[in-house]
Amino acid sequence: MQIVLNKMGTDVVAMQAIGRQIDLLAMLPMISLGLAVTTFTAQNFGARQYKRMLIGLKHAVIIDVIWGIVFAAILITFNKFFSGLFISHNETKIIHLAFEYYLVNGLFYWILAILFVVRAFIQGYGNSLVPTLAGMAELVMRAGVSVLSLVTVGLIGV
């Protein structure tokens, strides 16, 4: 994906560098909750508290989805503030590109939240093969979609 972005110029590379940092702010709570779900699920699986596992999964998904939606709304609303943490407000082209990045990624944070929690849940009850294969598929798809999007849709697709 970085090779594709590099071909689009320095403004796009700068935008992507800023966007990745902001993505980390969005994803760290989701990942942390996923880690908690793994432990919670494993403990309850060992205690044969299957109903409690499912209740925990439901609550974790709700919490993470709410976080994804709220963070996306804050990010899109205050996009110039977030970009301004990393770049001068005079860099209007990069700020606009970053806004598009936030908009596209932010709209899908809630899906990513579900992915993190469900993957952690599956790992927690002892199945590491499915999450590993899902992670590998995600990596391949990201690269493939990036390359195809560059040719068909352009930057928004990448």
Which helices and strands, and how do they pair?
Layout: H1 2-6, H2 10-46, H3 50-77, H4 79-84, H5 92-106, H6 109-124, H7 129-152
Question: Features of this protein?
Answer:
single chain; 158 residues; 7 helices; 0% strand
Quick rundown:
The chain is mostly helical and 158 residues long. The chain has helices at 2-6, 10-46, 50-77, 79-84, 92-106, 109-124, 129-152.
Kindly name the structural category. Answer: mainly alpha
Which blocks of ≥5 consecutive residues have pLDDT under 50?
none
Count of extended strands:
0
Query: How many strands, which pairing sense, and closed or not: the largest β-sheet?
Result: none
Q: Give the percentage of residues in beta strands.
A: under 5%
Identify the overall geometry.
elongated
Task: Write up this protein.
The chain has 158 residues and is mostly helical. It has helices at residues 2-6, 10-46, 50-77, 79-84, 92-106, 109-124, 129-152. 83% of the residues lie in helices and 0% in strands. Helix 3 (50-77) runs antiparallel to helix 6 (109-124). The termini are close together. The relative contact order is 0.16.
